Amino acid sequence: MLTALSAKNKIQFVNGYAVELDKDDSIHNAWTICNDMVVSWIVHLVSPQIMQSILWMENAKEIWQDLRVRFFQGDLLRIFDLQMDVAQLKQGEQTVSEYFTKMRIIWDELENFRPDLVCCNGSCKTLELITQRKTKDRAMQFLRVE
User: How confident is the model at residue 146 (pLDDT cuts 50, 70, 90)?
Assistant: First the structure.
């Protein structure tokens, strides 16, 4: 959803950068129209049960914060599921390319939940070691014998 909002230049309505303007402001109406459009997109993309709980909210940022709080705890469960998926993945009848692609999809999704750390001064050896270990771990996962 963030990618779609960014592509339409509307992400600032959920991240808080497009703050609501005073009603006297000359472009308040334009802000309202854009906010309502983002609210509509979000409301129509969630399940009917979730829709019922956010339908009364009028501000895209408030809806986004509500959804973030609601689903933030699910990140740990999703990380666990992904780790289990990669541990149980077997090549079986798949080609090496198909097998690697499925594994890579799981690794990429895990990376979204746990992105690499960044060292502020650019000379952190610990981060280099962590990256090397992750690469070795992935190689072992890929090469393990069934």
Answer: low
pTM over 0.85: no
Mean pLDDT of 51-62: 91
Cα→Cα distances 59→31, 66, 86, 98, 136, Å? 11, 11, 39, 43, 46
H, E, C per residue of 71-103: HHCHHHHHHHHHHHHHHHCCCCCCCHHHHHHHH
What ranges in 96-124 are assigned the alpha helix state H?
Answer: 96-113
What's the rounded Cα separation, in Å, for the pair 89 and 100? 10
Distances (CA, A) of 136 to 94, 112, 129: 23, 19, 10
